[in-house]
Amino acid sequence: RIKRLLPKAPGWLISALTVLAVGGVAIGAVVVAIEGGAQIVAELPQVLARLQSLGASITVPGTSMTLAQAASTFDVAPMIASTAAGLQDGASGIALTFLYLAFLLVSGRMITKRLRIILASRSSNRLGAVLERSIAGIEAYVSIQTLTGLMIAIASGLVMYFAGLSNAPFWAIMIFMFAYLPVVGVFVGSIGPTLFALLQFPTLTPAIIIFVSIQVISFIVGNLILPKLQADTQNIDPSAGVLAIGIWTALWGIPGAFMAIPLTLSVMYTCAQYERLRWIAVLMSNDGSPMPDRIKMKPDG
C-alpha cells in the first residue's frame, strides 16, 4: 500500500514506514489496553456491587437459593482482577505479534532475493515464486483485515460511546484486535463489552443494543465490503480457516491464532506448486483454484 502511495520511494524507506506504522498501532493499542485495564480495576467496587445486586435477584433453577448465595463460596474480586490482567496480557501479546508480522513482511522480500542469488536454478525460481506469493498474500490479508477491523471498531466504538458504556475506547481496541481472527473474531470481541454493559446498567437494554449492533456492523462489513476487498487475495475456505485457527492456537497460543491465516495461506501456496501435494491446496482453497493466474508456473512433479 505504501509502495502505491510512494512509487518512487526507495525500498529502505518503505520498509521503515511499514515498521513505524505497524509499530505505532501496536504501541498505541497496548497503551489504551493498559489504561483500560487499570480503569476496570479501579471500577471493581462498583462492578462487585452490581454483581451482588444481580445475584440476589436471580434464583438458581431447581432450588430456593439465589445466585448470590450459591456463589458465596467464591471470591469474585480476584477473578475480575485476573480477567482484567488477562486482557492486558492478551493485548500485549497481540501487539508483539503485529510487530513480528511487520518485520516478517519487511525482510521477506530480501530473503527471497538472496535465495534466488544463492540457488540459481529452476527449483530456486519455484521457491522464489512461492515465497513472493506467500508474502503478497500475507500483505493483502493484513491490509484488508486492518481496514475492515478499523471500520468495525470505529462503528462499534461509537455505538458503545453513545450507549454510555464506560471504557468504550478500550473495548473498541479489543474488537479491532479480535477482528484479525476471521469468522469468530468480532463475536468473541463483543462478549467483553456486552458483559460489562450488563454489570454497568440497571437494565438489559443497553447490553442488548451493544451486542446486536456489533453483530450487525460485523455482518455488513463482512458481507458487503470484505468480499470486494478480498478479490483473489484470500482464496481460502472458511471452514479451513476456522480449523487453522484452532490448530495454530494450540501450537503457539495467541500469536498462533492471529498468524493462523497468513501461515495457512503460505502452506496452501506451497502445496499448489507441487503436483503430489496440489490436492491439499485444492481442498484448502475456496473455489478449487489455490494459485492465482498471475503466478504462472507449472506444478512440480
Protein described:
This protein has 301 residues and is mainly alpha-helical. It has one domain. 77% of the residues lie in helices and 0% in strands. The protein is built from 12 helices and no strands. It has helices spanning 2-5, 11-42, 44-57, 67-70, 76-118, 122-163, 168-178, 185-200, 205-230, 238-252, 254-272, 278-284. Helix 6 runs antiparallel to helix 7 (168-178), helix 6 (122-163) runs antiparallel to helix 11 and helix 10 (238-252) packs across helix 11. The chain starts with a helix and ends in a 17-residue tail after the last helix. Mean pLDDT is 73; it is low at 293-301.
Number of helices: 12
Tell me the quaternary state: single chain
How are helices and strands ordered from N to C? HHHHHHHHHHHH
Structural class based on helices, strands and sheet pairing: mainly alpha
Average pLDDT across residues?
73
Shape: elongated
Count of spatially separate domains: 1
* Strand content bin: under 5%
Low-confidence stretches at least 5 residues in length (pLDDT < 50)? 293-301
In helices, the fraction of residues equals over 70%
How far is it from the N-terminal to the C-terminal residue, by CA? 36 Å
Largest sheet: none
DSSP strand count: 0
Radius of gyration: 23 Å
What layout of secondary structure does this protein have?
Layout: H1 2-5, H2 11-42, H3 44-57, H4 67-70, H5 76-118, H6 122-163, H7 168-178, H8 185-200, H9 205-230, H10 238-252, H11 254-272, H12 278-284
Helix pairs in contact: 2-5, 2-7, 5-6, 5-11, 6-7, 6-9, 6-11, 7-8, 8-9, 10-11, 11-12
